[in-house]
């Protein structure tokens, strides 16, 4: 099918006309606190799944539910949220595009520092739609559904068959998803020609990009325990091995303040930097001021924007995330915790593999702990792991996306990698043997996973146009 410019222009006009409807729809789903990592909020993840099923029914999308089973979390056996598989159109003469998104979100509390209630969508004077999940990933999911609705209102046939995969556990390790994808590779997904995921962000705030690589992630917890109960530091300080002291020591042995990973063997498998890759950095629309704006500070490790990008997406990093069991409330409490749990993650890059990372981490922490001579006990556990991913940006799928960006934004997109992790990209690539594309809707300053997460109205509306234009452009490509 060739790209029909008149049809695309009608679609763009319809999106503009209905933009307030789309904002209200986003407000409705942001109000559902679908936090997958909180036991008390697991029912809300199911509620979000129910909302999606009703919306798919309204849009005449054929769908099935795949039950990924149960899992253990925080001492509870919990039902995993449903994986929703959809199909809009099954014309054998058309290409079939698979789109993926997740309907769960990160935790958010007003007291974390939010300027507004995190689960109430607020549009501020800058046109920012502020609320948890607005950009990660409820806005992009709605973008696909809004595109279907706009075509229906115009009486326009979608130029491709649209296959869908929506899950509710991405922010908590995507448990059960890989099994479903592998099981459906020759079933629900058997006719898929290309995959598109809109769950990442522009490199900066002014120019769209297309992303062809992501870092992987290995997330760890270190549990250190000793006393049978919490102790009074005035009575027992200086007489017992304190778990918190041991943990602070171990944390100090993992990474330097300049980001150097201290675990032996971690850097051994990092793919070497090629001349072609080195030459790809200078043309990118990015400078340190963009990064400073995104973090609301100027405390970057690197003085060069190119070195900063390399640190962000082409080299591994180790980040310390938090400590459970430690006193953190206001005031002074002189307690020695009986058990503490430290959490950290390693972002991995090609050609690193989770199994090798795990071996290095467990061996090193046990060796360092042994040096302490502590009578406490240490346990190291990898909570979840995903491999890094890189795709070919010369594939027609990427050509289609670049053409769509030019139609909507009138500029050529940057081709980028990214530092975040979306393990499902590699799963789709390996299971389906099809090209996978990341086509972001939001900006680098959106604050996904942070306080005051937002999606600019302009990105939401123009992003909906972009997703629709991409489908038209894919329909005209030869695979």
TrEMBL record:
Q: Which UniProt keywords apply?
A: Hydrolase, Manganese, Metal-binding, Metalloprotease, Protease
Q: Where, by residue number, does Mn(2+) 1 bind?
A: 136, 171, 449
**Residues involved in substrate binding:** 199, 232, 334, 347, 421, 449
CDD domains per UniProt: M20_dipept_like_CNDP
As one GO molecular function, the record gives: metal ion binding
- Domain annotation Peptidase M20 dimerisation: ranges: 212-370
Which cofactors, if any, are listed as required? Mn(2+)
The annotated site for Important for catalytic activity falls at: 232
Q: Which GO terms describe its biological process?
A: proteolysis
Question: Any idea which residues are catalytic in this one?
Answer: 104, 170 (proton acceptor)
The record lists Mn(2+) 2 as bound by 102, 136, 199
**Superkingdom of the organism of origin:** Eukaryota
Q: Return the cofactor note field.
A: Binds 2 manganese ions per subunit.
Keyword Metal-binding, does the record have it? yes
Q: What PANTHER family would the database entry show?
A: BETA-ALA-HIS DIPEPTIDASE, CARNOSINE DIPEPTIDASE 2, ISOFORM A
Q: What protein family is recorded?
A: Belongs to the peptidase M20A family.
Spell out the protein name for this chain: Peptidase M20 dimerisation domain-containing protein
Q: Show the taxonomic lineage.
A: Eukaryota, Fungi, Fungi incertae sedis, Mucoromycota, Mortierellomycotina
């Amino acid at each position: 099918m060739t790209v029909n410019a008149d049809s695309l222009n009608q679609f763009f006009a319809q999106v503009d006309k209905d933009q307030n409807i789309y904002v209200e729809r986003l407000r409705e789903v942001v109000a559902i606190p679908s936090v997958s990592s909180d036991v008390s909020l697991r029912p809300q993840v199911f509620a979000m799944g129910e909302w999606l099923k009703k919306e798919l029914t309204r849009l005449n999308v054929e769908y099935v539910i795949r039950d990924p089973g149960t899992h253990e979390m925080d001492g509870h056996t919990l039902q995993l949220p449903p994986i929703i598989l959809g199909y809009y159109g099954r014309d054998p003469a058309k290409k079939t595009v698979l789109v993926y998104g997740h309907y769960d979100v990160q935790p958010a509390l007003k007291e974390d520092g939010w300027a507004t209630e995190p689960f109430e969508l607020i549009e501020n004077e800058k046109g920012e739609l502020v609320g948890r999940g607005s950009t990660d990933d409820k806005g992009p999911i709605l973008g696909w559904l809004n595109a279907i609705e706009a075509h229906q209102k115009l009486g326009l046939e979608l130029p491709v068959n649209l296959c869908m995969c929506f899950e509710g556990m991405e922010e908590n390790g995507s448990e059960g998803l890989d099994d479903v994808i592998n099981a459906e590779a020759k079933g629900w997904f058997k006719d898929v020609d290309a995959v598109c995921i809109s769950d990442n962000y522009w490199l900066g705030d002014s120019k769209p990009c297309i992303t062809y690589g992501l870092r992987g992630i290995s997330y760890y917890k270190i549990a250190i325990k000793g006393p049978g109960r919490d102790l009074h530091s005035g009575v027992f300080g200086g007489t017992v091995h304190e778990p918190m002291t041991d943990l602070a020591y171990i944390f100090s042995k993992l990474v330097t303040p300049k980001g150097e990973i201290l675990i032996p063997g971690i850097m051994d498998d990092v793919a070497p930097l090629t001349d072609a890759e080195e030459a790809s950095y200078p043309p990118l629309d990015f400078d340190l001021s963009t990064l400073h704006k995104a973090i609301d500070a100027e405390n970057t490790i690197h003085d060069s924007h190119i070195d900063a990008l390399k640190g962000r997406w082409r080299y591994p990093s180790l980040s310390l995330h938090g400590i459970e069991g430690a006193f953190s409330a206001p005031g002074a409490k002189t307690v020695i915790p009986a058990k503490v749990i430290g959490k950290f993650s390693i972002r991995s890059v090609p050609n690193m593999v989770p199994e090798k990372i795990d071996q290095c981490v467990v061996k090193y922490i046990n060796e360092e702990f042994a040096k302490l001579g502590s009578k406490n006990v240490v346990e190291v556990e990898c909570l979840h792991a995903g491999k890094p991913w890189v795709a070919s940006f010369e594939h027609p799928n990427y050509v289609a996306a670049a053409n769509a960006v030019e139609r909507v934004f009138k500029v050529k997109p940057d081709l980028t990698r990214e530092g975040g992790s979306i393990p499902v990209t590699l799963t789709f690539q390996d299971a389906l043997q099809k090209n996978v594309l990341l086509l972001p809707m939001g900006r680098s300053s959106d604050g996904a996973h942070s306080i005051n997460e937002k999606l600019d109205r302009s990105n939401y509306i123009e992003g909906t146009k972009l997703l629709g234009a991409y489908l038209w452009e894919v329909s005209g490509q030869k695979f």
